[in-house]
């Protein structure tokens, strides 16, 4: 089902195939932006709420796999690879790198439509996860250097007095830091604070080394 804000990006150097696919997708009510090269796509300023990239494997500049790798350094939308021939090694590489589908031309309209629905759903979920992590990072940035020292210790499972001893501070001071951390991170419970740290990818100390 097509939703508002969804954009299909289509990259294929074959004008006939590119125009045919774009027309087919627009007939389904989808918004399509088409490109002849990978560089044209990279130069395009995107403004979308959900995206799915239909990407030809063989392109005149960057090939599809190279573009997929280039996108990893920023935000990578859901990718559906298309090719004029069945290529198992290439399809395996593409899928391992995160592609949702590898379709061989000519492409059946219904199969492509289902793949796009999956792609948009995955893209929306990925964006939500990114937004949530960015919000957690914003909260984490509010912590003072000392609070950032306290956080991994208490999350790793040390008792207040153990964490205080490890830092060379009083128990009551540690408790104050702990309260400030909970407030700034907006954690409703300690269990949630632990989950937040996991999502932030914070490295936790080996507790045995601190006891």
Fold blueprint:
Elements: E1 6-11, H1 15-27, E2 31-35, H2 38-43, E3 50-56, H3 64-71, E4 78-83, H4 88-96, E5 101-104, H5 109-140, H6 145-155, H7 160-167, H8 171-184, H9 190-200, H10 207-210
Parallel strand pairs: 1-2, 1-3, 3-4, 4-5
Helix pairs in contact: 6-7, 6-8, 7-8
Sum up the structure in keywords:
2 domains; Arc Repressor Mutant, subunit A; alpha/beta; Rossmann fold; elongated; single chain; five-stranded parallel sheet; 211 residues
Number of strand segments: 5
The amount of beta strand, in percent, is 5-15%
Distance between the termini: 56 Å
The first-level CATH class name of the largest domain: Alpha Beta
Overall 3D geometry?
elongated
Number of helices: 10
Mean pLDDT: 90
Secondary-structure-derived class: alpha/beta
Number of domains: 2
Q: pLDDT under 50 segments (min length 5)?
A: none
Q: Give, in order, the helices and strands.
A: EHEHEHEHEHHHHHH
Structure characterization notes:
The chain is of the alpha/beta class and 211 residues long. The chain contains ten helices and five strands. A five-stranded parallel β-sheet has the order 2-1-3-4-5, with helices on both faces. The longest helix is centred in the middle third of the chain and has 32 residues. The N and C termini lie far apart (56 Å). The model has no long low-confidence stretch (mean pLDDT 90).
Give a quick precis of the structure:
It is built from ten helices and five strands; from the N terminus they run E-H-E-H-E-H-E-H-E-H-H-H-H-H-H. With 211 residues, the chain is of the alpha/beta class.
């Amino acid at each position: 089902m097509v939703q508002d804000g969804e954009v299909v990006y289509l990259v294929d150097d074959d004008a006939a195939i590119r125009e045919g696919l774009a027309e087919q997708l627009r007939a389904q009510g989808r918004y399509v932006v088409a490109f002849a090269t990978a560089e044209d796509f990279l130069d395009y300023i995107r403004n979308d709420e959900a995206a799915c990239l239909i990407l030809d494997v063989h392109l005149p500049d960057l090939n599809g796999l190279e573009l997929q790798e280039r996108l990893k350094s920023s935000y990578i939308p859901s990718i559906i690879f298309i090719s004029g021939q069945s290529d198992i090694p290439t399809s395996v590489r593409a899928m391992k790198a995160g592609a949702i589908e590898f379709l061989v031309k000519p492409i059946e309209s219904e199969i492509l439509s289902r793949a796009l629905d999956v792609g948009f759903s995955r893209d929306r979920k990925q964006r939500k996860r990114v937004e949530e992590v960015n919000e957690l990072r914003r909260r984490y940035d509010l912590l003072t250097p000392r609070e950032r020292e306290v956080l991994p210790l208490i999350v790793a499972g040390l008792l207040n007095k153990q964490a205080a001893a490890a830092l060379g501070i009083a128990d009551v001071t540690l408790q104050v830091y702990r309260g400030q951390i909970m407030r700034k991170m907006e954690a409703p419970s300690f269990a949630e604070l632990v989950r937040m740290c996991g999502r932030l990818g914070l490295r936790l100390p080996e507790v045995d080394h601190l006891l």
